[in-house]
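To whoever picks this up:

The nightly regression suite flagged Arylsulfatase as changed. Nothing in the input moved, so I suspect the structure step. Input below, exactly as stored in the fixture:
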Amino acid sequence: MNRIKKSFIYLALIAMGLVGSSAMALETTGTPGAPDATTTISGKQLPAPAPKFGGVIKHDALTSKPWWAPRIVPPKKAPNILLIITDDAGFGVPSTFGGVIPTPTMDKIANAGLRYNRVFSTALCSPTRAALITGRNHHSVGFGVISEQSTGFPGYNSIIGKDKATIGRILLDNGYCTSWFGKDHNTPAFAASQVGPFDQWPTGMGFEYFYGFVGGDSNQWQPNLFRNTTQIYPFEGKPGWNLITGMADDAIAYINRMHQTDPSKPIFIKYAPGATHAPHHPTKEWVDKIHAMHLFDDGYNKLRERIYENQKRLGVIDKDAKLTPWPNEVLKPWDELSPEAKKLFIRQVEVFAAYAAYSDHEIGRVIKAFEDLGRLDDTLIIYINGDNGTSAEGGPLGTPNEVAFFNGINEIPVDVQMKWYDVWGTEHTYNHMSAGWSWAFDTPFDWFKQNASRLGGINQNMVVSWPAHIKDKGALRQQFIHVIDVVPTILEATGISAPEVVDGIKQKPIEGTSFLYTFDAKNAKAPSRHKTQYFEMMGQWALYDQGWLLSTKVNRAPWQAFGAANPDPLNNQVFQLYDLTKDFSQAHDIAAQHPDKVKELRAKFVAEAKKYQVFPMDASVAARVVAPRPNITAGRTEFVYTTPMVGLPQGDSPFLLDSSYTITAEVTVPEGGGEGMILTSGGRFGGYGFYLLKGKPVFLWNLVDLKRIKWEGPEALTPGKHTLEFDFKYDGLGLGTLAFNNMSGLGRSGVGTLKVDGKAVQSITMKRTMPMILQWDESFDIGSDTLTGVNDADYKPPFTLTAKLDKLTIKVDRPQLTPEDIKKLEKSMAEALDGTPLRRVQPGPG
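Regenerated output under the current build:
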């Protein structure tokens, strides 16, 4: 196209209002008004203003001139973008950074591009992910914690504001194909049902296509899976199917579909596998591969030393970095474990390692899809290892059921856990490994996920490749980078501007700093452009400032979620100071030598906290899970259903825990008898079910797969109409002295009575009840049971109800907690959880 024609097009577009007269970087193709015309946009306003009609309209079409608005496209050299983030993986997990777990895909990307050893997260999953997709700090976008802990303050409500558009939305309106695969933990738990609203789902945040699960984690064998906003049910996985492979298959199909439809259109994919968040669910093939390698036979202490030496040899940590000491007071050294414990723990970690290796392999298949299409050279791949440090939420002993941890049961004895040894990592477990392995996988740092003041919780690593642009292949970069820097980097790489207005709403500034400058070999040793960064998670905090790191001393291990909260997390702290320019691993506390620097950085943290909505700080953990939030059940005490339905998530369904309640089912039994699920919530790893079994009415509570309490009618229901009732009288929350067990409080006792046609047929006292949460990735279902069942010995899903459900009524008598009551919860639960018998109950029905 000659210069005169380009100028004509540009002037015409100015006249249309599509671009401003100062936007001289405009790129256009085709003839203005023709169907094949394209244009880039200034991007300051999204969506771009509708252009003025440029044709001619007369009374008849023959004398009129048609005109088409140009199709909006990205700048000519804008690359495909594959943004990968794995889950709960610390610095020492991948082989790329000295780990023993083979990650050849990450190795390959590193060798074709760059390694980064100073990449920082927020210390928790969905806060990191909210920062990653918006380019703003996690409190700035409402994700001071996960949505399941959200509270009614701007920094903590788990709502990404309309004034903070995501990278998906920006790229979409600039002509990209945009998609999201895997984990979505940025939809509020109280907005995850099919009643919507869907503006906080991936498809409502600019990602045109979504295939994955909503929530923090998911059973990889039987996931609560969505395509866009539609649940994929009945589940269509084949025997042995696993979501890690399933999402790779779907992503590859998407890449090919987009390329074949329009090869010129660049693709943006956010790829977020569930690995290696619990449950650790790899295929047997990968478990066998890792087992044959004997990587962990000498224990977690030796593993840590081996990873440290590997890191030194590879040069991915400073040559003088010190290995911080093993926490004997927190985690028992390997040599002090019993032979049975060692056997169990090795099984736990082999399954974890298999999960990591399996996920990396499947990521490689997705990358290969770009290569097979000849598009790899112009694909920017950002592969971030972990959204926080390795998780220790399994506690020192690990657990076959993570749901148990979130109900305060984090010390299931080794001999009890051994009952799951042969099925560890299969569909029969919701497993997590011992925290000893987690500490080792954060080498050379210490502590874990949740610990925002220690590098083990926040210092990730990353590899980046862009073959057409990065020439310094295999090199290491050590500049300070935070996940908020990814969005501005992508925008600079694509030549797309951050918008000033989206949907008529003025946008808050991007808070990150592009690290594109590090792609150039001449900037290999350039100073970090990201100068200052705060960290805060559940009352633990830190401030990075040009190499200095002010940290609060860890005062709570991640598995200690039920303890009394620090009442003044801003000031009631032991402060530590580190010079990361000389102390790579945060090993030498020099606070005593530099009191003025401590004072200066404390003041800077307060300023950053005010700026980014960190206040009010809250150190509570479990108490925030039970705090009220605006779900669709808020304020309701009665729920009526007249037709079958499935898929209502826990955050939007009637909450029966810590309350008295009555469930009444009016059914019509057909000739020949009835069977099937009337109502269930949760699944194999924690929940309840009300069903007909061989015609007999049954109500069952599954207490985190450790104990099952079952009420059963004495005989099958006769054909015709019947009224079935389960009435539970909870022993109440004595709000003056909240406690957990024998006093008033959460998770305490109650009497359940099953009635048939008004007559009580069985009463059982439950000495303990579930205090906090049901299995979160299983839904509230009426008329059948999706995914896993609450009692495998009785039925297999979907266990469709063959009787007619005329009416189902749930009435809940819930004690009302005052703010003062909420504040008392954690202290009282910590006291009551000490020694609770539920920890040592035998598994299986009974």
